[in-house]
Design a protein that fits this description.
six-stranded mixed sheet, conserved putative lor/sdh protein from methanococcus maripaludis s2 fold, six-stranded antiparallel β-barrel, alpha+beta, 349 residues, 3 helices
């Protein structure tokens, strides 16, 4: 009689095969009994959001508005009567550009206008005596109107050589020096309105759906040693950066901050109390919609239910639910594609 000798290295393989065989037998027994293994889903508890989570976003400060003052045409910068950091009033001259071609165009337009005015003056005397027809009179008057329009345009072009401020602000930067030759559209100065300093932050695409205009926030400025400055979202970005996949959002500080300058690095997070009746919050990914409205899949006693809800806006954690849920209700956030009403599920956190 031969003995069957099994190598020691084959024992783990035999054990694994027995485990798989046992699992298959268990599944077959469940199928024979009319049962199926529960679907595994991930759930969270619908909760009250006293404050939004502490996700921190980096950014920097910037002026309420700014504008680049540029050269209207090519020429010589004959005057630059301002300095960097100088406060200017609206309509104040910043630079003067002079161009020989523009000056020549003005001289030609003025000479043409003088000639047309002289011809028109002579016309008045001759026309009164009936020596010229009506058609010639209209032609001379038309030439005078054209000359006047050309002269006005030439004077306006020369006047545009004086670059003025559109509103009151501070000279943030000067890009040229007096006596330089400038090109059309070349930068001359940066004018900034420092009456209000705003905060610009970059919010990742995963979080932007929770940010709306009016969302409260807190801001810290490490350079000034300031923290927990109250702010509110005033603009929400709608175009993502192709590199970081983030959206630029603007915050307005609740109070003026002494010493705050444009370009300072800041950190911001969204944190604010919600109204008493708007504190039930669920992740936005859990909310579904059909022909009857919005709903979420909830789990009670291990079984799935379709729960109708009414939304009340967004918060930093997700969407605010006005009705339909109570604190502690288990809401499916992952695996809802595989469930239906009454199905047995196994929850994971």
């Amino acid at each position: 009689m031969r003995r069957l000798i099994i190598p020691l290295l084959a024992l783990p393989l035999l054990c694994a095969c027995e485990q798989v065989s046992g699992l298959v037998d268990g599944l077959r027994r469940q199928e024979a009994a009319g049962e199926r293994p529960p679907v595994v889903v991930r759930t969270v508890a619908a909760g009250r959001a006293e404050t939004l989570p502490g996700q921190v976003y980096t950014g920097e400060t910037e002026p309420a508005r700014s504008v680049l003052l540029t050269a209207p045409y090519g020429g010589t910068l004959t005057a630059l009567p301002v300095t960097k950091g100088e406060r200017l009033s609206g309509g104040q001259a910043v630079a003067v550009v002079r161009s020989q071609s523009v000056e020549s165009a003005v001289d030609i337009a003025e000479a043409t206008l003088s000639q047309a005015q002289d011809a028109h003056a002579r016309l008045q005397k001759v026309f009164a005596s009936g020596a010229i027809p009506e058609v010639q009179k209209i032609e001379i008057e038309t030439q005078l109107a054209k000359a006047e329009a050309a002269a006005r345009a030439a004077r306006r072009t020369r006047a545009d050589g004086t670059v003025k401020t559109p509103w009151r602000g501070v000279v943030g930067e000067l890009y040229v020096n007096r006596g330089e030759e400038v090109l059309p559209g070349q930068r001359i100065a940066l004018l900034m309105d420092l009456s209000e300093i705003r905060v610009r932050i970059d919010v990742h695409e995963n979080d932007i759906s929770s940010v709306v205009v009016g969302t409260p926030a807190v801001v810290s400025v490490p350079a000034l040693g300031l923290e927990d400055l109250p702010a509110v979202v005033t603009e929400r970005g709608y175009v993502a950066s192709p590199l970081s996949r983030s959206y630029a959002c603007l915050l307005r500080l609740a109070d003026p901050v002494p010493g705050l300058m444009p370009g300072m690095a800041v950190k911001a997070s969204f944190a604010a109390p919600l109204p008493e009746d708007d504190r039930i919050v669920v992740p936005a990914a859990a909310v579904q919609m059909d022909t009857q409205g919005k709903y979420v899949w909830t789990v009670e006693g291990g079984r799935v239910q379709k729960t109708r809800i009414t939304l009340g806006g967004y918060s930093g954690r997700g969407v605010v639910v006005r009705s339909g849920l109570l604190p502690g209700d288990r809401v499916i956030v992952d695996g809802w594609q595989k469930v239906s009403t009454g199905m047995t599920v196994a929850e994971t956190l």
